[in-house]
């Protein structure tokens, strides 16, 4: 017997002895988080492709339309659902037998939507008009305390109504309030209808608002601070602790050729405008609805609703530019900065982005449906181009004509305490856990 096989046998014996000691559930969960070499990928990585050296397995499946996700230090998982499922808008998952897959599944809360996070041992979650928090129990999976209102008084709207949020390290919460329209036209999505100027939606919508993370019963009008404006909708936002700054990704506008055929043909409309990656400083104005970002011209361009013809910048010349431009209509739905050490050095401090996928690139095939990675430098700016980290969510090598044809649509991201990356899907309700193994670990497990 060679030394490598002897080593593997000894390791397996030690693992069996450990699992037979009758340790409590929280201890076994923490141990699994701390020993990533014990994770085993599904043979097909749960039907997705990954960058070299990475594997994935399905933690849970068919759970409902899974949106944003947060993972507690003990391994418990909480997922916001787009619609209520089995009477609840939040899904709670727990692995009780330490095999890495959720075997306990409970639904709670009457509100579906998108935003969810943990801050100071409270689970925060949002409806379209209120942000709540509930104290997490030391042992119970589903919180038993009564929910508390953190912020209310958001305007009721039919478009871009979800309220995703993130926290800084100084006790502040940042909430995306989407614009309830495509381009603030006088008549919504109507050909040649001019834009409202000034746009009344900029008063309380189309931007990011700042609140106290801990004060209860706040209202937007009385307690909120408009932190940044001119953002059509930013479902994906995160606070980058490495540089102490807020980042977000904007969903670009739609239907340039449908609304303004004299300036744009259908192919141009499929490729315009870019999805913008924003570094968001206090007081920043990113130009919506007056402007969009043209990646071919590399400039903020005046929107046709406000007198533009697809060529000039006009009043947009002094608006904030993105730090990176992604292809049109990919629909960025979550952002997370990687500050753990499971993944190789190149991923440290970089950003993962979940692209939900397009619906409006006809006559071209729909695109997106992937997890992108962007490397970052110490200055808090991208240090290279983006790469596709996880792909084939829509289907293996297939071109699709509509999002309903996609097998999966990635939506939420979270980094576990061991450094694993969790990904959610709101098409079929699948949750993946992605991990990295060195070549030595993969050879040892294979023998």
Descriptive account of the structure:
The longest helix is centred in the first third of the chain and has 17 residues. It contains 6 helices and 29 strands. The strands form 7 sheets. It has a 5-stranded antiparallel sheet with strand order 1-26-25-24-23, with no helix packed on it. Strands 7-8-9-10-14 form a 5-stranded mixed sheet. It is mostly beta strands. The N terminus and C terminus are likely disordered. The radius of gyration is 23 Å and the shape is globular.
Instruction: Work out the helicity level.
Output: 10-25%
Distinct helical segment count: 6
The secondary-structure class comes to mainly beta
Low-confidence spans? 1-37, 443-447
How many strands appear in the DSSP assignment? 29
Proportion in β-strands: 25-35%
C-alpha termini separation: 12 Å
Mean pLDDT: 91
Shape: globular
The main β sheet shows up as: 5 strands, antiparallel
Strand order of the largest sheet: 1-26-25-24-23
User: Whole-number radius of gyration?
Assistant: 23 Å
Give keywords.
single chain, about 450 residues, mainly beta, 29 strands, globular, disordered N terminus, disordered C terminus
């Amino acid at each position: 017997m060679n030394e490598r096989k002897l080593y593997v046998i000894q390791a397996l014996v030690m693992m069996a002895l450990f699992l037979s000691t009758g340790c409590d559930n929280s201890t076994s969960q923490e141990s699994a988080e701390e020993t990533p070499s014990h994770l085993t990928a599904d043979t097909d990585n749960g039907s997705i492709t990954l960058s070299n050296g990475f594997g994935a397995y399905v933690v849970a499946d068919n759970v409902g339309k899974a949106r944003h996700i947060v993972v507690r230090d003990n391994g418990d998982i909480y997922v916001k659902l787009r619609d209520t499922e089995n009477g609840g808008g939040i899904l709670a998952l727990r692995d009780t037998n330490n095999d890495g897959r959720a075997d306990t599944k409970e639904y709670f809360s009457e509100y579906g939507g998108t935003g969810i996070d943990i801050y100071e041992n409270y689970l925060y979650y949002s409806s379209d008009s209120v942000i709540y928090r509930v104290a997490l129990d030391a042992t119970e999976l589903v919180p038993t305390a009564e929910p508390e209102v953190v912020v209310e008084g958001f305007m009721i709207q039919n478009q871009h109504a979800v309220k995703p949020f993130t926290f800084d390290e100084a006790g502040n919460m940042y909430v995306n309030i989407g614009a309830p329209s495509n381009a603030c036209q006088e008549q919504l999505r109507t050909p040649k209808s001019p834009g409202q100027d000034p746009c009344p939606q900029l008063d309380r919508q189309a931007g990011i608002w700042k609140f106290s993370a801990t004060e209860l019963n706040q209202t937007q009008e009385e307690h909120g601070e408009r932190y940044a404006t001119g953002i059509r909708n930013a479902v994906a936002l995160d606070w980058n602790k490495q540089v102490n700054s807020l980042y977000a990704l904007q969903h670009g506008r739609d239907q340039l050729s449908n609304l303004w055929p004299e300036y744009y043909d259908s192919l141009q409309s499929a490729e315009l405008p870019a999805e913008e990656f924003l570094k968001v400083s206090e007081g920043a104005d990113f130009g919506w609805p007056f402007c969009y970002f043209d990646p071919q011209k590399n400039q903020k361009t005046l929107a046709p609703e406000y007198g533009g013809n697809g060529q000039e910048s006009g009043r947009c010349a002094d608006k904030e530019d993105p730090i990176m431009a992604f292809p049109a209509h990919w629909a960025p739905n979550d952002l997370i900065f990687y500050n753990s050490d499971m993944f190789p050095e190149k991923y440290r401090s970089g950003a993962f982005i979940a692209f939900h996928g397009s619906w409006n690139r006809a006559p071209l095939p729909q695109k997106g449906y992937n997890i992108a990675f962007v490397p970052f430098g110490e200055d808090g700016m991208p240090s290279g181009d983006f790469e596709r980290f996880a792909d084939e969510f829509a289907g293996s090598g297939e071109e699709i004509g509509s999002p309903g044809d996609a097998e999966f649509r990635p939506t939420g991201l979270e980094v576990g305490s061991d450094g694993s990356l969790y990904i959610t899907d709101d098409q079929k309700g699948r949750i993946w856990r992605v991990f990295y193994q060195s070549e030595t670990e993969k050879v040892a497990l294979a023998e």
